Amino acid sequence: MTQTTLESDLGVALAIRGLARRFGTQTVLHDLDLDIGAGEFVAIVGRSGCGKSTLLRLIAQLDTASGGDIHADGAPLARSGIDTRLMFQDARLLPWKTVLANVGLGLTGDWQVRAHAALAEVGLAGHADKWPSQLSGGQRQRVALARALIHQPQLLLLDEPLGALDALTRIEMQQLIERIWQHHRFTVLLVTHDVQEAVALADRVILVEQGRIGLDTPVALPRPRARGAAGFAALEEGILDHVLRQPEGRPSAIPVEPAIAPGALRWAL
Ligand SMILES: Nc1ncnc2c1ncn2[C@@H]1O[C@H](COP(=O)(O)OP(=O)(O)OP(=O)(O)O)[C@@H](O)[C@H]1O
What we know:
By secondary structure, the protein is of the alpha/beta class. It has two domains: 6-83 and 157-269, P-loop containing nucleotide triphosphate hydrolases (Rossmann fold), CATH 3.40.50; 88-151, no CATH class. 30% of the residues lie in helices and 23% in strands. The chain has eight helices and ten strands. Strand 7, helix 6 and strand 8 (187-191) form a beta-alpha-beta unit. The protein is globular. 40% of the residues are buried. Belongs to the ABC transporter superfamily. One of its GO terms (molecular function) is ATP binding.
């Protein structure tokens, strides 16, 4: 193999101003402002239906905003030419193509060398000739990650990519994503229901509440982060407490006691 490593320091800075998205009479995102630094790892949490995926889809240019704009490294997103990749809960592999061919999907030329390198990076070097049906759920997500990495993305958008995995596989995948991000330094936006996952991985945790940024919390904990550490638990509990005090459809001016103690949960439902 001639080329075995992919580029690093790829991150792009995003500036989101007055972003709005309405579906008929329903306003999902309201005048949302958000700055994300180049190479930053940002987690987005919030109640189901608060607009997390809508925000990600707008940044991925899979949807059109009703108002506002997004700039990438100072240029309007649509004209910025940045490479953005998405990962979902479902790996979305083509079952009739090998693992290697799934990684190199749509590429021409000498893509095999880079596909092998991407597979090695996600720990699947020996699985290139297998079929997706021969892989576990965690391995399929690794292939999806390799399929993103081969493009050397500047922006990686992760929409609950680990949501269907068992707890141990989930932690292994979190560690893998962190390692790969630390190496390449692309910008990451991770949508997750798991506040613990957000605190474990992100530089900042953003809480979307009724279409706005309800909380923007920096996570100044050294990496790799020990989930049992006091600072970790306090941060996680603080974010969960905030989520639980803001039931869907209620204004934040009316605080309510959470029905369940925040310490007993780590999921923002
Ligand atoms: N294409 C669409 N047409 C109409 N309504 C939509 C469309 N896409 C999203 N919505 C609505 O926008 C709201 C926010 O959806 P979104 O998927 O962004 O929420 P979410 O925070 O990602 O939720 P979850 O955590 O459950 O995935 C929901 O009420 C949803 O029904």
